[in-house]
Structures are given as structure tokens and as C-alpha cells.
Amino acid sequence: MSRWCKCCEMRVNAQPLNVEARDPTNHVESKRKQTEKIVELDDSEYRFALKVLEGPALTLRNFSALTTSFQLSKIGEQETLVDMKVVYETEKEETNTGDIALQPAISYIQFLEKYEIKTEAKVSVGIEALWKALAKDVAFVTPKVIPNLVKNAEVTEGDGGIGTVFLFNFGSDVPKMSYQKEKIVELDEAVHKIGLQVIEGGHLNFGFSSYKTTFQLTPIQEEETMVSVEVTYESQVEDSSMPSKTANPKFSSLSQKLHLGAMVKEIKTEAVVKVGIEALWKALVKDVRFVAPKLIPLVKNVQMLEGDGGLGTVLLSNFGSDIPKISSSKEKIVELDESLHKIGLQVIEGGHLNLGFSSYKTTFQLTAIREQRSLVSIMITYESEVEDSGIPSTINMSSFNFIRNLESYLLNDAT
């Protein structure tokens, strides 16, 4: 019998103390019972070790002994370095045995990681009117502006301050969800910030272990406000578009209540993807003609009409019959900075310009987090007289879905 060791490290967007709040036996070899014993624990050093006593990690992996050690080191306020080491015994050591031994530990740490979705929009409404609709009248306003989604809402606990609990009962247009309870866990009148945590039903019935939405309002001018929406969640669900889908009704209801659709000039969406920055940049800039039709089913093909891929290049996207009002869209690269991994595309003909927009520009900004982790920021800047208050929500969801489709393509389909 031989004794072996395998190590690796990961950075995750989670606080060190989150680790002790999880039961690792629930997340290793899902749907099977496994018994593990804590054989080392040092709270001051953020170090602990788990030894498998019985279960599939031993029987299915042909290990006679398996102990996993975790050492956590704080990097930033919301980022932690996790050093993992597995010590195992097996009769037959193969080239990937160490990786197999480490996989449950890696899956466990990934389960702990928090993900964030951020959206920003400028609106031509004063901050106090926005704050009243969002923080003071939310239970009253929501069913009136999105009755197809929310039948009714009520305050079940509290008086509108910290600790207040809202119950939202959903309509038939929200399949598989009948209700959701949210609690105000953050409230700062001075900076116009409110945070709502789902505590029962809703997202928690869809594989999310936590789900929080935070709104931050910032005055720009007397009748102009920046609205920032941040969704923080922990999950292993396969439907990565869920946060975008369910965050949007809150943003839409606010827009509809105040008739903001045609006033919003900027929409910013951010998401972290598990792909390196160079692979992302290549797909977005170098290979966009080949990648876009694979990411967006509505796009039949993309042609380069002018230029060589640099500044001033004009791209023609031809759409399928599923888009009745527009057959094509011409976009021009009006901003390109290789060093910053930033590209801006302006619609110059067709597309959004045929749907009531007088201008429409999409800017992509990539930021490296680590070797195989990048932040993708999409800024949509537009001018429109279209009286459709669902525009911000639609743009946000489209941007988010594009990011996730791009991530999936690069991880699974790209050759």
C-alpha cells in the first residue's frame, strides 16, 4: 500500500469565515452518504482537515485512506486564497489519481464561492422620488406595475426598517415559484442603499443557497440619478441566467412606476467568467464573425464590410426570420484599446436604429482576475424616444446572457 500527496490552490470570492458555515459531507459525492471527521481545526489560522471514515470517496475511488487539509489566507475583503492538500493511500497509483482525490475538495470550495451580477443605469429622475418608490412603497408598488409576475405583496414583519420581511406571492407567469420572502438586511437612508436577502421560497427552491439584491442610488444632478443593482448569490445551479432573469423585475418595476424607460441612457452589466482574458479577447475581437452566430441564434452570419478588424472596421450582422422588424445591423468599431482589452461598437445602420433608437453603442471591457478568471463589463449607451420602460431590463438580460453564452462556448464548444 502506497501513501501519496497532491496539492493545489484556488482564489475564491468569499470570506474565510464562510467555510465553517458549510457541511462538506453534503457536497461531496452528491446524493450519497459520506462520513467525515474533523481531525484538525485551528480557528486563528483558518486551517482545518477532514478525514473520510466511510462513503463513496473511498469505495468508488479505490482509496483505503483519504484526508483533505484546507488552509485559508485572506487576500482582500471578499477574496480568499485556499490551499488544499490531500493525503491518500491506494494500491494502484495512476497519472490522474491525485487529481481525482482533489476534485471533491475543489468542488466544495467552488460551492462556497459567491458570485456577483452588477447593473448600473442613469435615469432622469430625482433621487428622492426613486428612493420612495424603491424603499418606502415597494410592497404597494410592485403588484401594480408587474401584476403578471406578482399577484400581491405584504409586510409580514417590521415597519420598513432593518429586519422587515416582505412576502411576494407570484402569479402564473412565474412557473415553479409560488412565493418568495425577502428581508431587509441592509438599509442606509443617508447613502440611499438597501439590501434584500431571500430567506424563504423563490430562489432558495432553485438550488441557490443564498441570494441578495442590493440597490444603491447616487445623485448626479437634481433630476438625474445613478441606479446600481448588485445581485450576490451562492449556487451550483446549471441555469446561470437565473440571477439576471429574477433581478430584472425589480429594476423594471422601478422603471415602470416612474416611466423611466426612454430616459435611461446607460446600462452596465458585469459578470465574472471562468475563462482567461486572452481567450475572451480573441473571441470578442479577432473571431467575432465566427463566434457571434454560435452565441446568438438570431444572427445568421456576420460579414466584415470594411477594414481589417481594427479601428473603423464595419461589421454586418444578418438576422433570421425570428426578428420581424430588422433584417440586418451594421456596426462600426469606434473604440479599440488592446492594452486595456476594450472595444466599442456603434450601430451605424439598421438594427436598433430601426426600432426607435437614435444611437446605440456597445462597449466591452475585460479585466483579468487571475489566469482562468476574468471580469466582463458591457456598457450600453443609447438615445431613444421609445416609450417602453422594459428597455433597461431587456438590455441587461441580453448582455448577461451574451456573457454566459460566451463563457459556455469557450469552456465547452470552442475548438
Automatic annotation (TrEMBL):
SMART domains: Bet_v_1. GO terms for biological process: abscisic acid-activated signaling pathway; defense response. InterPro entries: Bet_v_I/MLP, Plant_def-hormone_signal, START-like_dom_sf. It holds the Pfam family Bet_v_1. One of its GO terms (molecular function) is abscisic acid binding. Keywords: Pathogenesis-related protein, Plant defense. The keyword Protein biosynthesis does not apply. GO terms for cellular component: cytoplasm; nucleus. Residues 110-261, 262-413 form the Bet v I/Major latex protein domain. The keyword rRNA-binding does not apply. PANTHER family: OS08G0374000 PROTEIN-RELATED (PTHR31213), PHYTOHORMONE-BINDING PROTEIN (PTHR31213:SF64). Belongs to the BetVI family. This is PYR1-like 12. It comes from Prunus dulcis. The lineage of its organism: Eukaryota, Viridiplantae, Streptophyta, Embryophyta, Tracheophyta.
